Amino acid sequence: MNELSIEEEKALVSDAKDGDKRALARLVEAYQEPIYHTALKMTKNQEDAEDVLQETFMTMVEKLHQFRGDARLYTWLYRIAVNNVYKRTRTTQKHEAMDIDDPDVQHIHGENLSAWPETEKLLGEREWIRDVLADALNELPEKYRTIFVLRDIQGLSIKETQEILNISESNVKVRLMRARHYLRDKLSASLEEGVHYE
Amino acid sequence: MNKKDMHQHTFRKLCDDISADIDAELCDEVKEHLKECPDCRVYVDTLRETVYLYRGEAKMKEEEEMPADVSDRLFKVLKLDDIREERKGEEA
Predict the structure, then answer these.
(1) Which residues of B touch A50 (CB under 8 A)?
(2) By CA distance, what is B53's nearest residue in A?
(3) A86 and A173 housed in the same domain
(4) What is the least distance, in Å, from the CA of B35 to any CA of chain A?
(5) Domain housing A70
(6) In Å, how far is A22's CA from the nearest CA of chain B?
(7) Which distant-in-sequence residues (6+ apart) come within 8 Å of B71 by Cβ?
(8) How sure is the predictor about A160, in pLDDT bands with cuts at 50, 70 and 90?
(9) Are B20 and A158 in contact (CB < 8 Å)?
(10) Per residue of chain B (92 residues), what is the pLDDT tens digit?
């Protein structure tokens, strides 16, 4: 993220509220990429991600005067973006509200687990691993995917994630843990099937 | 505590330890268990690797940057395209 310091962000927000278009443009430049990448991961579609990006910043321009500055501007933008994604997916993907269970310990010990190749080696198989990761993430129900994208991919803190989604800290942690286990199991299955590693 | 309960107990502790931060230091009790339990050890390693893979892939994608035309259309919709051009001109 082309991250602004707290002081820079405050000054730009203040100037933008006073009608300074250059300050507004600077804020858009700073946060367009993380919002776009998050929307892309969540919507799984470039056109939808672009729509979410535009809607998010149009809302920012329209409602910036309502932003009180208690938290960082980007957490406010993420919240707007996530709500825009939810509005879209609620009309198209009813199964996305599905729950997943806690990992089953007995299942882990009956699985004959084997170690994976090193992360760098897997990332070297770029096209293949990209598809595997995308497929697994796409299968993850939305409420878990959102948490995983915000916390583990975008690197937001638990507190920021909880503020964006307006849920409790423990709920963030539980969903995050379930998401990680779900994705691990999916990747493990793909790696076992994978013809790239023998 | 029997072996099954021990796995369950350790697993809960493990989840507590890394629930906020996947890189978190594990408590001594979990570390001890992992020394003796290859399945749990592999499971923890692969759980962490899952997150590292997604982070690594996202980083590679970000390095490719957002398509320029997506950004151009955004600035146009926001009616900030003229400001952006001005700024680019000044920076050049």
Answers:
(1) 70, 73-74
(2) A119
(3) no
(4) 15
(5) 6-92
(6) 6
(7) A32
(8) very high
(9) yes
(10) 666 676 777 777 777 777 777 777 778 877 888 888 888 888 888 888 999 999 988 888 776 678 999 999 999 999 999 998 887 778 77
- This model of the complex carries an ipTM of 0.80
Q: CATH code at A39?
A: 1.10.1740.10
B54·A152 Cβ contact <8 A: yes
| Beta carbons of A175 and A143 less than 8 angstroms apart | yes
**Angle, vertex CA A64, rays to CA A59 and CA A66, nearest 5:** 110
Full DSSP string of A138-167: HHS-HHHHHHIIIIIIS---HHHHHHHHT-
Same domain, A62 and A15: yes
**In this structure, is residue A198 part of a structural domain?**
no
Query: Which amino acid, residue A99?
Result: D
